[in-house]
Each structure stands twice: as C-alpha cells, then as structure tokens.
Design a protein that fits this description.
The chain has about 290 residues and is α+β, with helices and mostly antiparallel strands. It contains two helices and 19 strands.
Length: about 290
Amino acid sequence: MADRSEAARRKKKRRVLVGGATALVLLAGGGTFFLMSGRGDSPDGTNAKPSTSTSATPEPEGSKSPTAYTATVAGDDTLLRDSYGQTGIRLGSDLRVSALGKRFQVVGRGNGNSWGQSAEPVVDVTKSFTVTARVYSSATKGSRIAISQGDGESYSFELGVNEVNGKQAWIFRVQTGDKGAEATTRTVAAEGLTILKTPTLLMATYDAEKKAIALYVDGKKAGETPVPGIWQAPGPMQLGRSRHHDIWTGPWQGGLHNIRVYDSAFTEEQAAGYKEGKLSPAPKPAHAWLLT
C-alpha cells in the first residue's frame, strides 16, 4: 500500500515537472515567434520604433545636405541670398520669407510694403534673357506684378497678372520708349487660364537677335510678339511691384519662389524641359533666389 502511494506521488511529481517545462518552452517559443514575426513591431501591428523625420530645410539642386540651403543672407532675414550671383534682394515689411513644407517662398500681402528690391540692375535688357519664377496669386482682381525692373519713371519689363478683356491673365510686358507711353508698350498675354490660387510656372524671354518677346506658362508657349528693342530703365530689379509714371503699382498678393535669371532666351523645347526638370544640358543661371 505504501509502495503504491509512493509510486503515485512520484508519477504526479513527474507530471508537474513536465507540465512546467512544457509551459516554459511554450512561453519561450511564443516570445521568440513574436519578436521574429513582429521584428520589433507592437502587437497591434504599428511600428514601435521611434520615427525619424527629415529636415524641413530645403536643399539646392545637386546638394545632399539637408541643411545646406538658406534663403536669406546669414544674420539678415530681410535680404534674399543670390545662389549664383552676388545680388541680394532687400524685402519690404510685407513681403516675407515663409517656409512651406520643404521649400521657402516669399509671401506678399498685396499692399504698398509687399515688395523686394535688388541692390542693382539684374537683367541687361539690351541682350537676350530669360526670367522665370513659380508663382501663386491670391488676388481676385487688378494688376499684380511678380517681377519687374526699373525704379525711375517707368519699368523695362514686368511679369505677372493683369486684366485683359475684363478677365485676369498672365502677362509679360516690355517698354520700348523712355516715357512709359501706351504706344511704346508691347505685351504678350495668356488668356483663359485659371490664375486665382493656382501654382504656376511663369517664364518670360527676350531674343535680342529675333527682336521678339515670348511668354511661357507651365512650360507651354502662350504667345510671342516682335519688339524694336527694350528700353533700359534705370534702377534695380523688383519683386512684387512695377513702376508706372513715377508711381509704384501692381502690389503682389500671394507667394513667389524659384526665381531665376538667365543670360539667354530659352527655346520652346528648353521651356518645356525646364518645366519637367529635364533640361539637358542645364544652363547655369546668372542669378537665382529661393531655390527650392
């Protein structure tokens, strides 16, 4: 009887030990399965690892450093840095640098302080040139000039928005005489396009050999017109305004960025390639600001 009782106790002990060992193996196996299948994920399938965020600082073309590009001159947040030349652009109080995602832009409020001005003339209008910028207009009416040149009695050229036949249109306008008269003005307009709150690539060209100006909108040629030449107005390049009969007009309302000046007139093929980022070989700008 005692032998049978002792045998039963030993058998029960063996079952407990085996059961405990089995439980340990299952726990160990379950833990291993979770770590291998989840690879560090949490049980609900979301990644438990800390997320890594990229810098919001934009990069210039060809740069791999996320902090290499700055829109303004070091120590002066009201002076746009020229990435290719030596001509900064001083900003008025209501044309301010703003970050939007990974890019920098300047934003104007559409008033008399929504301007920027270079220290000296940027475009030699007696020679071929191309001026381009990415623009966003939030104005519903009136003249709104993104880029112009001249601060005397009149402008040499202006690029932006104006009303044509009662509706907003993108325009590239040049002055061929020194008084700013309507009779000596030449304009290329892109009518029938959506302008309000629509990000747009504008490109204006002057071919000194052909004696012709052209306007491109989002890489497509909107028009071309012959000119006898462009009057070299005194004074620097302007952002957000234009000079008409000794008065500043066309205050910009909206955003501007990726502003570039080239010492050549782009062809239709180059304009289309520029829009798609496939311009090859890529000409080097003479001046550039807000390159993002």
